[in-house]
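Below is one such record:
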Amino acid sequence: MKKSSLGKFNYSLRPAKNMERKMFCEAFARLSRLSPLPNFRYIGFGSNDFCDFRLFHERLGIKDMVSIEGRVDQRKRVEFNRPHSCIKMEWGMSHEILPSLDWPRRAIVWLDYDSELNAEKLQDIALVTGFAPSGSVLLVTIPVNPGDSSETDVVSKRLSDLKKCVGEDKVPSSVQAQHLSKWGMANACREIVHNEILETLSARGAPQPSSSRIGYDQLFNFHYADSTQMLTVGGIFLDGKDREKLSVEDHFKDLEFICSDNTAYLIESPVLTWLEMRLLDKELVSPDWLPEEEREKYRRVYRYFPNFTEVEA
């Protein structure tokens, strides 16, 4: 994590990000088949808002929480905004702090970056993958905006820049320059992250009997664009014993947003007024004078859609 997003965004007012957190909460509730949710640890980047910390503490009951914050110069401000005393602050960059942590229990780790994928971030991903106990969840969020230009030299530069950032050997040969427009950069980065996780697990499990080896099941492949295009990819680590308790195929199948492959789930905010959304909430049959595309967007996200209200303090 090179730069903090502290002061750049008000994360509580980004609709897609807001919905993403609530979707995570619904999925994380299934982890109770492995262990009571308060027994998990949450590791993330609190920044100045601590939105995910608030939500996961209040809805999941997690009390063992670690926030990694690189903006030491903003320490007083961040400490002031820390919402719960159970959040332990670790001051430093993620590549400095993650190696120093112990892993006493199952963890939910959200590496919510605000800069592009690079070799340093892949090292973070490998470190978490190498140490997280079975039953842990890893989430990785990165910006993946490729730019709008379709000029040949710009298209070629996207691929060369990606190779410089993550290392040429990390970019699959199937990724070509012409693939990196629109959401193509997100697809390429998902594959790079996915491969890093699998390679690390292969090395981790090599000296162990097959019954003790930990595997990885992808659960999330989100695309959204509150201000810039973003990718969140992640999943769960499970050994043989935990797979007997929690089946990804059975216990997550009712959640529409679960993505186990390179098919992405696009989180979109419907372009509807509050009155129109309230009407859709009440009506069994949708009114045909509302655009079908917007009705479908709302159907997909209405349970997670944020309700922003102006309040006087």
